């Protein structure tokens, strides 16, 4: 469609479908406003941890609608879909690697961009907390959910007083020494691994912290999340990468019109 942004590659991660804090309507709207050759779903798209605890009843129509949009991208535009497993959708370990037409389910992926090689991973396998102390990771997940709940209450208070949105969790990540150190350690481990694999860059998610910068000669890219930041990575036709935000696109580009479709079941069922 004329006037719609076109990208070689779009990377999104950490949508956490099945949780109350997932910005599923915003990511669906975002994908309806863009065209791309390749869409990388870089982990934690479905929150299997939460669905296993609360039951499949938490799966809503808007979650199914998200996958309808993905299927439409494949069918109408020939978009290649790369689904990289994350720790919250680690049930995909039982399927990966799997290829179904334009859909690839993988544990990690190697992307070539203008002659440069990028190692694509959700990132949890490089996080000692999630790999060696899963119980602590789940405890931290509960704490993060509580923080989001408090954040929601706080921002309702701010909206009533005409103040803009303020992210408590992002503020903590930026100011608390242990959180800053954790992010830095995570980035450095990934950069070192990319260099060992003779890659020029690494693309990840997991820590909900969007980034696009050079670290010790390696291009480090993080797609952020669709719980708070509502961010994605894009690669244009010249191979240039940038972090884009939903707020940059919403209202500026008309969404693609949708035809009436019958309800479809989610592409993947959650293993019990």
From TrEMBL:
PANTHER family: BLL8164 PROTEIN, UDP-2,3-DIACYLGLUCOSAMINE HYDROLASE-RELATED. It is an enzyme of class 3 (hydrolase). Keywords: Cell inner membrane, Cell membrane, Hydrolase, Manganese, Membrane, Metal-binding. This is UDP-2,3-diacylglucosamine diphosphatase. Residues 8-210 form the Calcineurin-like phosphoesterase domain. The lineage of its organism: Bacteria, Pseudomonadati, Bacteroidota, Bacteroidia, Bacteroidales. CDD domains: MPP_YbbF-LpxH. It comes from Bacteroides gallinaceum. Its EC number is 3.6.1.54. One of its GO terms (molecular function) is hydrolase activity. InterPro entries: Calcineurin-like_PHP, LpxH-like, Metallo-depent_PP-like. Pfam families: Metallophos. It comes from the Bacteria.
């Amino acid at each position: 469609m004329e006037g719609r942004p076109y990208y070689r590659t779009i990377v999104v991660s950490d949508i956490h479908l099945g949780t109350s804090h997932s910005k599923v309507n915003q990511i669906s709207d975002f994908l309806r406003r863009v065209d791309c050759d390749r869409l990388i779903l870089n982990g934690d798209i479905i929150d299997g941890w939460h669905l296993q605890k609360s039951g499949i009843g938490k799966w809503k129509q808007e979650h199914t609608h998200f996958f309808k949009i993905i299927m439409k991208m494949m069918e109408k535009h020939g978009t290649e879909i790369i689904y990289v497993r994350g720790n919250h959708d680690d049930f995909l370990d039982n399927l990966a690697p799997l290829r179904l037409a334009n859909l690839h389910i993988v544990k990690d992926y190697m992307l070539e961009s203008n002659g440069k090689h990028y190692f694509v991973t959700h990132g949890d396998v490089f996080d000692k907390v999630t790999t060696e102390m899963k119980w602590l990771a789940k405890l931290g997940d509960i704490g993060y959910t509580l923080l989001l709940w408090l954040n929601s209450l706080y921002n309702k208070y701010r909206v009533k007083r005409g103040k803009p949105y303020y992210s408590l969790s992002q503020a903590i990540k930026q100011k608390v020494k242990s959180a800053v150190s954790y992010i830095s350690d995570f980035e450095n481990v990934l950069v070192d691994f990319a260099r060992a694999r003779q890659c020029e860059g690494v693309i990840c998610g997991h820590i909900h912290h969007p980034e696009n910068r050079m670290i010790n000669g390696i291009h480090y890219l993080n797609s952020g999340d669709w719980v708070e930041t509502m961010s994605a990575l894009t690669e244009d036709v010249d191979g240039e990468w940038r972090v884009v935000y939903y707020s940059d696109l919403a209202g500026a580009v008309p969404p693609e019109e949708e035809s009436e479709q019958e309800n479809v079941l989610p592409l993947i069922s959650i293993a019990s």
